Amino acid sequence: MLIPVDDPRDPRLEPYRAVRERDLIGRQGRFIAEGEVVLRVLLARSRFRVESVLVSEKRARAGGVLAEVPPRVPVYVVPQAAMSEVAGFAIHRGILAVGRREPMACAAELLRNAGAVATVLVLVGLANHDNVGGVFRNAAAFGADAVLLDETSCDPLYRKAIRVSVGAALITRFSRGGTAGDLVGALEEAGFEVVALSPAGAEPLASYRRQSRTALLLGAEGPGLPPALLARTRTVRIPMADGFDSLNVATASGIALHQLMQG
User: Fold this and answer.
1) pLDDT tens across 164-175, in order?
2) Smallest Cα–Cα separation from 83: which of 160, 161, 7?
3) What are the structural domains of the chain?
C-alpha cells in the first residue's frame, strides 16, 4: 500500500514526528525502527507487529524490503526533505517504521521459562543507547536466553538502541524494571549463579567455569557495579595491559559471552 504524502503536517505522519524527543517521553505503546536491516528483522523475526512504514521517494523506487511489508500495512512515501522535517533530523537511510509493543514479561517469568542450561545478561545503570544496543547485538550473536535491565537502564526499544543492535533488541527476550538487588534476588531464587564482571574481579574470566544456569552482571562504564552487588556475587575480570583497566561495556559483554559459551 504505497501512499504518497506531500505535506509533512499530514496527521497520518504524526507517529513519526520528533523522533528523538518522543523516544524519551514515550509514544503510547509504540516504538520506531530505522533502516532496511532493522525493518527486515521486524517483519520476519520479531514478536512485535509493524503498524506503518515511512519511506523516502528514492527508497520507494528501489523497492527491496518494501515487498515484504504485509498488504494491510500502509507505506507512506514522502520527499526526503519532508521525511527529515517530520522526524526532526536527517534520515539518511530513508526508512522508518512504527512497531507496536507487546506486554513485557517480568524478570521472574523470563527466568521461570529459561531452560535447564541458560545464560542471562543483567544490565545495571546502562543509560547509553549505543551500549545497550551493542550488548543486545552480542546477546543475540552468542545465543543468550534473555536480558534483564534494572530500572535505571535505558529502554532497549529506543530507536537508536534498536538500530545499534541491528534489530537484536526486537528478537531477544528482555525485562526492564526493579533495582539491581531485586534482579539478583530473582536470579538466585531461580537457581542462577550470578557472576559480576568488573576490573576488580577476584578471578580472571578465563578461569571461570560456568554453571548450568549463569547470569552475567554488567555495570555502566565509569561507575561500574555498586560495591554491595560485587560483595554479593562471584566476580570475574578481563585481564588487560598494565595502566589501563577499562573496556567499553558492549565490547566486554562480547568477550565475556564468547568465553561463557565455551562451557
Assistant:
1) 999 999 999 999
2) 7
3) 2-100 (3.30.1330.30), 107-260 (3.40.1280.10)
